[in-house]
């Protein structure tokens, strides 16, 4: 892979993230508003860990199975939608609670939330399978190129999620006069909004 090709890939990934927030970004905003950015780093870790598995799946051709199976694609997608709606409703119906420094927000739970939300997004595997081949030089060793592309994507994604989390935490501080019930309802609404994004997003499997 030439330097020019890598810079073009970096620009393509940057442009991809310079769009309205997607499911993962709304998730981190919601958690940063409720738990603060520091504890929400576990959500980011979970999200990026799922991305690593999705990249691996794409590299081994599992994306082709998902892309050609409408039933498998649909099941994964709607499980993710249901999971996000469930979390959102729990937040919206909860009363009060702790502030951003709440010890009740366990790291394992936040990591699991980020991991499951990203892992049940079948579009990610298809995306990686479509993106990476465009920037790989077939005349060079494939594995090192995949590693470079994957690590670069994770770095850009991680920084983007940090920025969205920082914004969410600042919004929560500005809304500090609201009761935690109000914060929970806003966070829950963001969760359901993320579910809607995943539900309405569609990639037609090839037949």
Automatic annotation (TrEMBL):
Signal sequence, start to end: none
Family according to the record: Belongs to the Rht family.
Membrane topology reported for the UniProt record: Multi-pass membrane protein
Descriptive protein name: LysE family translocator
Presence of the UniProt keyword Membrane in the record: yes
Protein's cellular compartments: Cell membrane
UniProt entry keywords in alphabetical sequence: Cell membrane, Membrane, Transmembrane, Transmembrane helix
Main localization category: membrane
InterPro entries attached to this UniProt entry: LeuE-type
Transmembrane segments: 6-29, 72-93, 114-136, 142-166, 178-200
Domain of life assignment: Bacteria
Keyword DNA damage attributed: no
């Amino acid at each position: 892979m030439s330097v020019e090709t890598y810079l073009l890939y970096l620009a393509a990934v940057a442009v991809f993230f310079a769009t309205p927030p997607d499911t993962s970004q709304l998730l981190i905003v919601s958690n940063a508003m409720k738990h603060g950015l520091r504890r929400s780093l576990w959500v980011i870790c979970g999200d990026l860990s799922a991305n690593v598995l999705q990249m691996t799946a794409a590299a081994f051709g599992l994306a082709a199975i998902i892309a050609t199976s409408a039933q498998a694609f649909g099941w994964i997608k709607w499980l993710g939608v249901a999971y996000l709606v469930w979390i959102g409703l729990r937040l919206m119906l909860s009363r009060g609670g702790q502030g951003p420094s709440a010890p009740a927000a366990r790291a394992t739970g936040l990591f699991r939330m980020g991991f499951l939300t990203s892992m049940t997004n079948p579009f990610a595997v298809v995306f990686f399978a479509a993106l990476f081949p465009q920037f790989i030089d077939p005349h060079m060793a494939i594995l090192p190129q995949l590693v470079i592309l994957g690590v670069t994507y994770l770095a850009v994604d991680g920084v983007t999620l940090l920025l969205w989390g920082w914004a969410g935490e600042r919004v929560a501080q500005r809304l500090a006069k609201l009761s935690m019930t109000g914060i929970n309802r806003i966070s829950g609404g963001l969760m359901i909004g993320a579910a809607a994004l995943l539900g309405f997003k569609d990639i037609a499997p090839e037949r």
